[in-house]
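pasting for the record
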Amino acid sequence: MPSLRATHIIGGEIYYDCLGNGQFRITLKLYRDCLLGQAPFDDPATVSIYNQAGALVQNVFMNFPGSNVLSINTLNPCYQDNAQVCVEEAIYTEIVELDPIPGGYSMTYQRCCRNESILNIFGPGDTGSTYTAQIPESAFTDCNSSPRFSNFPPIVLCVNDPLIFDHSATDPDGDQLVYSFCSPFEGASTTAPMPVPAAAPPYNFVNFVPPYSANNPLASTPGAAVDPVNGELTAFPTQLGQHVVAVCVSEYRNGVLLSVNKRDFQFNVLNCNGVSIADFVAPTADIETGNVCNGLMVSFQNQSEFSVVYQWDFGVPGVGNDISTATNPTYLYPDTGQYTVMLISNPGYSCSDTSFLEIAVYREIDAEIEPPDPQCITTNSFDFTAGILFENSATFFWEFTGPANISSSTLQNPQNISWSEPGVYPVYLTINDPHCTDSDTIDVTVYPELNVDFSVNSQNECEPARIVFTNESSFSPGATLIWDFGDGNTSNQTNPVHVYTEPGIYDVRLIIENIVGCIDTVELFLDDLITIRPSPNAGIDANPRVQSILTPEIEFTDLSTEFLDTWLEPGNGDIVDEPTGKYYYSDTGTYYAKIVAVNEVGCYDTSMVKIKIEPIYAFFIPNAFSPNDDGVNDLFSPKGEGIKTYEMFIFDRWGDQIFYTDKFNQQWDGRANDGKKPAPLGVYNYKVLVLDMQKTEHIYVGKVTLVR
């Protein structure tokens, strides 16, 4: 790799945008070597503006905006990051205000110096750069803006490989743009590397080393060229090294030249030692796996590595259009057969590679059977048709399961196949040709003859009666069912459940209409099928419904009608023959008392009421006691009943707890300190927490006097 020793500038351009009212935004793009470059970007960078006579109008000082290191953009797929190159970009902008004058203005930036290793100009290390652009007089009247290049050239080129680069520009005004190679300007010097002001125009060109020139800036076979219409730059560099190149874009309006933007830059031509690996598969035409019966359309999956461009030849003899440059192409072959497909990765480049693959292409077989409509057992006769995608040499094998009139056939389209019993029967088809096979399976449905029948869970019930109807008919899917229950109600469910609410004797009718298979309408009418007997009306009242265990007396009243007999079930296991009267509960709890009524036809009815017998609750706390062991009032002993949980706390006058219990039968004996010594005479505070049997919480706080 050649030496890339550098000093500073390696490229740039300058252009302007008209903002109106004599204001212009100047944009200066500069590129420096950030690997070996010795000088930083200017801060500020000075753009000098001259009138047509070459007199300085003003210096525009542009503050350094910061910079970005550019990625090593290269259009060559053989490049694999083997270059010691670093390019840094800074884009300066500033707005200036100018008065319209005849001939307009020129704006110029100059900087020294170029890389000493450049080989196509004399004295590159002592040669600077000049970036200049014209602001024509018409820019004030038409508010014209100059063109600017769209893409930065690739930093690295590969020797002996083609370069195709879009070096086009855009123009905000839509003017005609013409492209050409041009000679870079020199400027500044080693003694004045960043002159302020920049020198006045005109400017000298760099001095090319023969045989290089502005139109032949690098060794290339064929020679480098710029398309004048679209700006496409093409070259085939054949010599290593760094080369200065300049491209001009000229702006024309109605055939009149308005401005020229000249960008010069540096090409680094290197040896690119990259490699590519061409590889691909054709899964639908793979001879090794036998997956070759997928039709004439073949999709190729590119599995190449280190490749960006491709050239395919699909291997059809005698034709020239069986090619593609797509990454993953699809190709329709003209006929079945075997073909040799070729893929070239990175064609035309030094890192190209070639891969071949033998494929087989055969038409797809489709053994799809068209499912026949269901048929009735009495008239069933089925015709079958094989799929239409197969070769003329294909063979067929049908298999008919179940009680069919034949078990198999080798005909393409067997006919008049029938079954002797109703049911669902699989039918199998296999198609073979010399290369491919396919199969399919369908189900054939043979419906039984239409038949109507049903049963019920009971024919004699008390009202209200829930009757379950079970359909035992034979019918086809989609059949219409109409049930008539004889009481004015109907249903179209298969197995309905109906509630009879009135006593009586009812006829039941079921009508079934088959619309497929065995098409017919049948009905079953059963008269006097359901007998519904009347039921008594049970009724009960209780007063009161909530009572204390101290007075657990409940007055029950029988409110039943239309009955033969009634009795009371209080909910505790007893049975009382005379429901009306007083009943005494012996324990607390919640009871569901029930009246049972029965009539002459044996139908029953019940009525229920909720009874609650509550436990009593009482609690008493004394206000003094005398723990002197005389057997009288020796304990502080609260009394009560109906207590579920209990806690008592005793505190002295300073608020310290001296006694605690959660047992109702454990009372305070007047001792403190865990019962170690008697508490002194005086007044003590207590707090008692009680939870009664109804889970109601009671809190008692008070004072008790200890006397001797």
